[in-house]
Amino acid sequence: MSRYLLLPAPAANRVYADATATMLRAELTVLGRAALDGRIGTVEPETVAGVQYLALDADRLDERDLAFLGLASAFYALFERDGELLRPVAVPSPEKYPSDLLTILKYQGKTNEQFTRLVLNITAASTARPDGVLDGTLRVLDPVCGRGTTLSQAVMYGLDAVGIDVDTKDFELYSSFFTTWLKDHRFKHAAATTAVRREKSVIAKKYEAAFAAQKADYLAGRKQTLTCFAGDTLVTSQLLKPGSVDVVVGDLPYGVQHGSRGPAAWCATRSTCWKRHFPAGPHGSAPAGDGAGVEHSGSAAGTGRRTPHRRRPDGALRAGYDDLQHRVDRAITRDVIVARRD
Ligand SMILES: C[S@@+](CC[C@H](N)C(=O)[O-])C[C@H]1O[C@@H](n2cnc3c(N)ncnc32)[C@H](O)[C@@H]1O
Prior knowledge:
Blueprint: E1 2-8, H1 14-35, E2 43-48, E3 51-58, H2 63-71, E4 75-82, E5 85-89, H3 100-103, H4 113-125, H5 132-135, E6 139-142, H6 149-156, E7 160-165, H7 168-184, E8 189-198, E9 201-211, H8 215-219, E10 224-230, H9 236-239, E11 245-251, H10 263-277, E12 295-305, E13 326-327, E14 333-340
Helix pairs in contact: 1-4, 4-6
The structure holds S-adenosylmethionine.
């Protein structure tokens, strides 16, 4: 049995930084159980020469184990303890594109990038096919995508991503940003915006980009796609094919912080959105949910939720996931709910 020490990356956001070690520990625990069959054992803090690490014991970490550890939202470096010394361990990077895809856009209401990566990681690991996050075969939906933090993170992992947001300005800004980003980096691509019509009326606008990191992949038809709709998430089943989504990740709208609409309207949306997209209802009353019908069986849904005082929904995954509650700012505490549709 070897002891490994994982060095967390410093977080840019100060409030979130206070929670980083606890969150990372919970994230590694979930990844360990869901994707690594418990092979990494208990994760615990350890200080070496005044520097804080997270320590884990494992028999021997193979390439796949290391790839999963490298996904961790605050991963920086990994060492294997060798007596008094720490031996660096090479961990494959999950990033298929330059990280400016996630960092260029800055705006009020943006979901913390590290947090978004964490929710995507643990949700993807909770599906029936966790390896799909490594081999690029999971399709990710953010039903309340804003300006695309989840979508960009999914793209970074080499996954196909689809997003829906009712705010047309968010749609315009994100789609034009994404096209510019593809052009600036000279990634071969095709992108277009069209109207989605049902029974002669327009129900949404659709942006679709097909692209690849390597020109040869693009020319051979090995393309990734990013699809974005300006529309109401409640009509998802009219926008996407049944069974076309493996992972649903969203940071649900909350309170008055998201513009002019009153909290009551948001609450109504929030509760309906839960029922549509997340298998366990917000109040535990609908364990199977009515679903939007677009999720695969074996898919998982995860979300940040700013109402942790309410009891956790029935059907929400518990062990490890319960430790992800954290402060967002002085006024708001957020937790994470993940559920699986079997
Ligand atoms: C917390 S924000 C998501 C922010 C996003 N993760 C980001 O980083 O840009 C919630 C989003 O839900 C969207 N929203 C609220 N009600 C909606 C609905 N009925 N259909 C689609 N989107 C909705 C809002 O416009 C807002 O962009």
